Amino acid sequence: MDLVDRFSDELLEIESRKHPGDALTELAQRYSYVLPDETSLSALGGLGPLVELAAGTGYWAYRLAARGVDVIALDQAPPDGDRPNRYHAKTRTWTTVASGDETALSEYPDRALFLCWPPLFSSLGECLTYYTGEAVALIGDGGHRTARIRDLNETFTNTLVAPVQALEPFPGSPPTLSTWRRRRSR
pLDDT for 134-146, tens place per residue? Predict the structure, then answer.
């Protein structure tokens, strides 16, 4: 059974016992706001070791690790931890999600930074203040529902833009995976 079929089956099961509008939110909280697909998993795997910030339940890290990708998942409030998480109900994580916010990025200069659907009104837009590594991967919708990463366009060169499937995309703003490489000083 592929992932879309699995999500469809779970969506039907959730809708049968809850208000239909809650089903997508529950799936997003259990898995991710964006569905991992072959293209995005391959692109991320090609970046080398990763540090995923705001990993939530760690579903992307779990899927990447299953492909042999070296990935560390961080969230300021892991959903299986002691602190409440604004976006994910208290639940088990798919993999180890360590406690850490954007300030922890200074510890990972040898890893590509991965952000999947960073919340619009969060401090994640400032993450490049702490990140000194060479590559960034961002899944979002250009700032309609996801944080705008300050200085990304000024410091990094875009190397890939690929469509992704979000559970509840903002109308008229297709979500994408974009990858970026740090510009060299001349």
Answer: 999 999 998 778 8
Contact present, 125 and 149 (Cβ < 8 Å) = yes
Separation of alpha carbons 89 and 46, rounded Å: 31
Q: Which residue shows structure tokens 């001349």?
A: 186
Q: Tens of pLDDT along 59-96?
A: 999 999 999 999 999 988 677 667 766 666 677 889 99
Specify whether the CB–CB gap between 90 and 66 falls below 8 A: no
> Which pTM was predicted?
0.84
Alpha carbon distance, N-terminus to C-terminus of the chain: 50
Burial 7-16 (b: 16+ CB within 10 A, else e): beeebeebee
CB contact set of 25 (below 8 Å; sequence gap of 6+) = 168
